[in-house]
Amino acid sequence: MKKENILSLKGLSKHFGGIKVIEDVTLEVTAGERVGLIGPNGAGKSTLFNMIAGDLEPSGGSISYFADMINRWPNYKRTEQGIVRTFQKNNLMLGLTVKENLLLVLQRIDKKHTQWWKTANKKNYPSLYEKVEKLLYEWGLQEYSQTKVQDLSYGVQRQIEIIMAIAGNPKLLLLDEPTAGMSQLETDQIISLINKLPSEVTIMMIEHDIEVLFGNMDRVIVLHAGTLIADGSPEEVRVNPDVKEIYMGKEEAANA
Amino acid sequence: MKKGPIKGTLLFLLMVLVPFFLSIYYVNILSEILILGVFAVSLNILVGQTGMVSLGHAAFFGAGAYATGLAAIKFSTNIFVTLGIGLLFAFLLALIIGLLSTKAHGFYFLMLTLACSQIFYSLVYQWTTVTGGSNGLSGIAPLDVFGDIRLSNQVFVYYFILVVMAILLFLLSRFLHSPLGSVFIGIKENEERMKSIGYNTALYKNISFLISGTMGGLAGGLYVIFNGFISPTDVYWTASGSVLIMVLIGGVGTLWGPVIGAAFIVILETIVSSYTENWMMIIGTAFILFVIFAPNGIVGIFNRAKRIVVKQQKIEHKEPNIIPIKQQTKMDG
Amino acid sequence: MSALLLQMMNGLSYGMLLFIITCGITIVFGILGVLNLAHGSLYVLGSYVGYSLIIKAGLPFWVALMAVPLLIAIIGLVLEVVILRPTYKLGHLSQVLLTFGLAYIFHDVFSMMWGKNILVVNPPDVLNMSVEIAGNAIPAYRLALIVIGIVIAIFLWYTQEKTKWGAVIRAGLSDKEMVGGLGVNIHFVFTCVFFLGSLMAGLGGVLGSPVLGVYPGMEFQILILSLVVLVVGGLGSVTGTFIASLLVGFVETFSRFFLPELSLIITFALMALVLVIRPQGLTGRRVV
User: Fold this and answer.
1) B3-292 architecture in CATH?
2) What is the ipTM, given to two decimal places?
3) Is the CATH number 3.40.50.360 carried by domain A5-88+171-255?
4) What is the per-residue pLDDT across C89-127, written as a single tens digit (0 to 9) for each?
5) Do C101 and B125 touch (CB under 8 A)?
6) Which of B173, C235, C245, C284 has its CA 20 to 30 A from that of A108?
7) How far off is chain A from B200, nearest CA to CA, in Å?
């Protein structure tokens, strides 16, 4: 049985002034796929994510999500409908506690976010608070629940960045270098938690660590100078001559 | 958790008793504090809760005051009808100004609110046939509450304002920490991320603006009932500046801060102006000292003092637990 | 036709005066990132001190024109070093509020020292006459204002575009960290900029008093006009300030002539319009 497409990009482009950051990218992602996105710096990976998430308007082409053309959807609507992203640089409510950050995500999922007549606490919103505590337990962050995010280390903030997205009930999860700047141990933890996500969640992940991508993704896409130069299983991409030249080639040269 | 409502109720009862012990002079001062307190509380929703610093809040005070005053002169002597008209007018003004200005951020938002309020000021100032122009709007007679209960003296007016303030603070104490309240705080903290986790922040900013503006109109309506008079100077942008000062001196983003700030300014003004005409100088100096030494306002000073006292009591037990965690987090980063 | 020409000259000279007043607040905002809400007060202080020197002490206008800006600049320098400098770490909003507090203090200082009447200074004798242009008598002082405004604009433009200091300032406008990277002491730059901004306020104060007079509460009117110009021109851009000053000058003058009852509204409507259509101001770059 053929699975339906969750995302299709047709001829997507983004120009800043005269600079073509993304040029004519066409791509289909089926529901439940795990797609890795690699490419040298400046290849346009984050720009592509920004357009899918609605933080940037494309210069041309179309973005479809399931059956809908979503070019004109604002970013918050895309999130409501299940396109949830993380950011390359931690982007959190720094002055709020970890728990408050997560509550902001969860209360919207539970449609409690327009209630103004009850104080938000465990007594008034038991199921909401149970969910937060469960989430914090799963990620081993209970001890930080009352800590302000700004007082946490970079690594913990990075985890919260990812939890914020996962808590948002994603159908399509866009992870922008989730393990950037983290130790090997922390990277392994995060990847194993990402792998534990339900199989119906579609994941697209930008990652510089090729081993992480090739080991955990079904499919790898290579962007170079704004165009798509390879798309296939990790094995296929690994042997693709173009990729070797522009991407692996450099590394081999560096290793030699 | 339960101390708050009890303290609030006690304070309310104390305030009820005030007219039995103090002269009408002090009662009037209290009324003024309460009115400006409502005004400051309303601005705090915008500045403290949603992080949008407005320098045009006097427009809503003026809208509420003029509309209430005109309604009292022309249509009705019932306080709820006239105040309702004042609120409606402030609401509509907030709708217009909000739609125009909430798209802008930071300094631009400040300037847009300032521009809009100055346009409103100019309208009030120039439209002499309706507003009385620079002479102000006077001749507002005492209003009826129910049947033949009339706010015929200043003590009744005080009680009316007190009840309004009590209801408002009760509602706000729930709102401030409610889920919707936390959405506003989230926008103050990081609007971009709030969008990315699925909030239509433009909508919430407009809601915040509407609540804030309408409440500002309520303050204006109460003021005109209390004072029987309103003039364009109360709508000028320096009035917007004063209320911003109250919020900041009291404590941004807290429930009681703006009220305390309003009380501080009114009391200071009353004391100082009996000695010298130059009270703006005193307010300015106090304000500068607060900005430098107590950026979290009077409530911030209280909290810090409380923490020091609590820490000294628990120092043997708590301190060793706290330090290692902090070191650990710093080492990671 | 002749009335129109007269209004044109009025608008032009008023616009130039606005430019002289506003370029100070622009430079300070552009480089320090601090919106100096006491700028109007420094202007008014300039007017008052000028009044005292010219009318009370009987000194010639030209002496006041030299001495007063320098004095105001020194006062500005002291304010920057004593009050603003220790607070750079508090963030821009705090500093804006600080200058607002200063404006309050100045307000009372003025009424204590100069009373509550409107004070007017006569233009210097040399310029206290009219010049005939196309059959119209134009006050020579207004023509002088236009010339001075142009000279200052050229001076600022030259400094900004052609000198090392200008390079530092332009770098500061686009990237504050870069200024530090250039090996320039950023605090020294800030102080100099504040000195210059205050100098311009003082100069405006002396030059403006024969036209606008000086009275209590004027600082808030001047300030708000400056803010309008600042916003319309695009924050921190000298060229934008120049264009916006002339625009606001013309709009104010003509609306007062044709629609006196709406003149107050039109200026602010102009600003609101600019902000809604071009939030970055007329010449500003879009700040993301």
Assistant:
1) Orthogonal Bundle (1.10)
2) 0.88
3) no
4) 777 777 878 888 899 899 989 988 998 888 888 888 777
5) no
6) B173
7) 6
